[in-house]
Amino acid sequence: MLDRRTLLTSAAAALTTLATPELATGQARAVVVRAGRDRTDTHLKLLGITPYDVKVSTADSAGALFLCEHRDMARGGPGRHLHYEQDEWFFPTAGEFLFAVGDEKFHLHPGDSIFAPRRVAHRWTCVSDPGTILIALQPAGAIEDFFKVIGALPARPAADKLAEIFAAHGMKMLGPPMEIE
Questions:
Q1: Helix, strand, coil tally for the chain in percent (to 5)
Q2: In a domain, 27, yes or no
Q3: 32 domain-assigned
Q4: Are strands 122-126 and 97-101 parallel, antiparallel or unpaired?
């Protein structure tokens, strides 16, 4: 199990990649995204339901970081999957969430956080209604495009189509969403 120090150190290390000169975007000023707003002004709704806002786009960080906010989520979450090249960090700001990372399970409340390393199977679910969570992926990879593709779908596709979409974006679908007890 990750202890708090390891988790925070890992998250800080992921975020410091933005400061490296070789990743500079050439952007000469800060990017501000106001509460309830989306960096790209698209305001996607994942599978037609969950509001999803980009806070730091892949372009903002020259591919080093992607940060999004899932707001006012109903109960539920993604199936068990892994990212081949991205580490993922989660930070609930409202509601309660269950996570499974590898063989371990965790219950998170607002202000808690969890780090899911690349190539480690994980899934999560919102167990309250509503819930809001910040998610950071480092490096960004194709995740922003993945969310655009999923955001354009009106409903959850069949398992084989979903697996195909995951694979096209550097991930592998491994199983169903978590059941809420």
A1: 20, 35, 45
A2: no
A3: no
A4: antiparallel
pTM for this one? 0.81
CB atoms within 10 A of CB 41: 9
Report pLDDT digits (tens) over 37-83: 888 877 676 665 667 889 999 999 999 999 999 988 889 888 899 99
Residue 167 included in any domain = yes
Distance of CA 175 to the CA centre of its chain: 18
Residue type, 131: G
Concatenate the DSSP letters of all residues of 19-43 into one string.
G-GGG-----S-----TT--TTS--
Torsions phi, psi for 95 (to 5 deg)? 85, -175
Question: Is 12 within a domain?
Answer: yes
Q: For 113-147, what is each residue's pLDDT tens digit?
A: 999 999 999 999 999 989 999 999 999 999 999 98
> What's 59's domain CATH number?
2.60.120.10
Query: Which burial class, exposed, middle or buried, applies to 174 when counting CB atoms under 10 A from its CB (0-12, 13-18, 19+)?
Result: middle
Into how many domains does the chain fold?
1
Strand-pairing partners, residue 107, are 98
Amino acid at 25: T
d(Cα 33, Cα 25) in Å, to the nearest integer?
Answer: 18
